Amino acid sequence: VAVACDMSGSISEKMAHESVAEVLAVLELMSQGEPLSVPVLWFDHACYPQEVTDVNELRPRGGGGTSYAPVMAWTKEHHGVYDFKGLVVVTDGHCEDWGEEPPCEVLWVLTNEHNESFAPPFGEVALVLAGA
């Protein structure tokens, strides 16, 4: 699985911390004590990929406008390199620039600060509530 975390200007400090917590949870679940390398894509209007083997390596970047297109382009370009089966996108949903559907399953994870009208053209949507 590749994990993309929205770090655009519309993301509050609280949501940024929640995004990092989601990445940590995914890494812990996937590793099950074994060494694991996970592509983490921090994004705003650009994509800032980071290959993570340890949670202490997480280095969030961003702060500009939001576009999913660079994330989808990176996913399409690197799908064969990492052989991931899915992309988890943690976001507040304040964006309409979807990009092209990638060659893997997409799960959009929205926090409780999400956009009520969020309706992506591909993938499944899950809502994660703080404290849930």
Care to give the gist of this entry?
The protein is of the alpha/beta class and 132 residues long. The chain has helices at 13-31, 69-82; strands at residues 2-6, 38-43, 47-52, 86-91, 105-110, 124-127.
Arrangement of strands in the largest sheet? 3-2-1-4-5-6
Note the run of SSEs as H and E: EHEEHEEE
Strand content: 25-35%
Number of strand segments: 6
**Spatial shape:** globular
**Main beta sheet: strand number and arrangement?**
6 strands, mixed
Percent of residues in helices? 25-40%
Instruction: Provide mean pLDDT, rounded.
Output: 86
Class based on secondary structure composition and strand pairing: alpha/beta
Rg over CA atoms: 13 Å
Number of helices: 2
Which stretches are low in confidence, meaning pLDDT under 50 for 5 or more residues running?
none
Give the end-to-end Cα distance, rounded to a whole number of Å.
23 Å
What does this structure look like?
With 132 residues, the chain is of the alpha/beta class. Helix content is 25%, strand content 25%. It is built from two helices and six strands. Strands 3-2-1-4-5-6 form a six-stranded mixed beta sheet, sandwiched between helices. The protein is globular. The relative contact order is 0.21.
